[in-house]
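Same chain as my last thread, 497 residues:
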Amino acid sequence: MNYPTHLVDKRHKREPSPKDEPADLSFIHQKRPISSNKSNQIYKPISNISKDKSITRQEGVGSPPKGFKASVYTLSTTPMEDRTFLQHEMTKQDYSRVKPLAAEIAHRDFATKFEKKIGQVGEIKYHEEPDEELMRHYKRLPNSILTEQSLKDMLSENLTYLNLANLKWVKNEHLNKLGFVAPNLVELNISGTVADDATLEELGKTAVNLKSIDISHCSALTEKGIKGFFQECSTLYKFWAANCPNSVTDESMLLFVDQEELRSLNIDFCVKVTDASLEPLVEASPPLKELHISGCVKITGKCVTALIQKGNYQLEVAELSNLSQPEFDNETMKAVGTCAKLRKLNISGDSNVGDEGLHNLILGLKEADDTLIKKEEGLKHLTEFRMSSSKINSEGAMIKFCNACPNLETLDMNGFVPLGETGINMICKSLPKLRICLINFTDKISDPYLLELYQAYPDVKFVRTIVSHSDPKDNALRVPFPKIPSKKKGKKKKKKK
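reply #2:
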């Protein structure tokens, strides 16, 4: 019975059911008619071209499977399950190895409570200025490289030793604060820096525990800085000021008194220092173990002998080179030879020390201060000896000296002209621990014999780069001009007509 539409209960109304999808979808891929001679091929654009110029392809080659269309993402009659499966197979691949930035940064637990600070009236705000480009580069460097920033981080109360040698970029505004930020500093090396008088005076006041300082090659220092440092500093056991001729003088060294604990003194090439500067040290009688006075031509041998005697002959290192004054002669070598613990000795360039000086080094002093000194003959602990360009002229005296020093490891005989082949062989035999031997300017040793020495003593490094002076007046700056042959102009011959 047909009821009106407004009286029909919609709950009992039948909805139309969708049509079933046909199982045969061959109409999607229509096949062209196949010729009789090529029954198993279908036409495909831009495919293999045969000789008869007919475009063909094999059946099923390059076509999608049955029931699927060429493009998955276009509207088709393919069932949803099959279309989803095909899409999954086509897009199945590994995920990218690139992680997001959040995975590289460690997770931080931020505070859950946030407080807002309310500015008060009259409150001063400090805005940090951005660092300069050079300072930003310094901060990027590792801590193993010393910079201004790493130096600030390093300085503390636990620091006792600091070496800033040849660091000219360290400014005085950082050097003069070392005593404040590192009050327990004991040893300080600022040689070759830009330290000035104000910096040195400030270090003397603030570095109260300082016992060792090296100010060598500081050209900005003057006598005023040395005086101010000695007035404020405590007793030192090491003071090095080599090559400071304008700052280390008699006037500045007068305050260098009461140094009973001094162990090492280096005033090399301080040409203005005389015996008057060292008199306070002689009175203090410090047990010197290292003495460097090379190039101090105004210091006499008597002063050196007094320093060694007052130190109870404890000297271990003696740098006494380039001393041309007549007061420094063979007699001074007796006091030096009495130091039984001597390890290093340098008398290179001493114009008044000859064969007798070597003999005095072996024997030493037998009596001093009316007291008999019991010393074995020779220098058993000597490991380094340098005597280049000295006045020693006897090969026998040198051989005898080497026999008395069996532990020598470094021997400098540059410019020892009397040395011959027999002498160098006997010296090498008497020194079983010899490792370095300098023999420049030795004419009597031939090159073939030197090759034999290399083979006979393979552990010894013989250094001879210059054999002899070809011209003593030649300073390697005068280069003679080559002679140009003069050509005489002859008469021109007349050409025959």
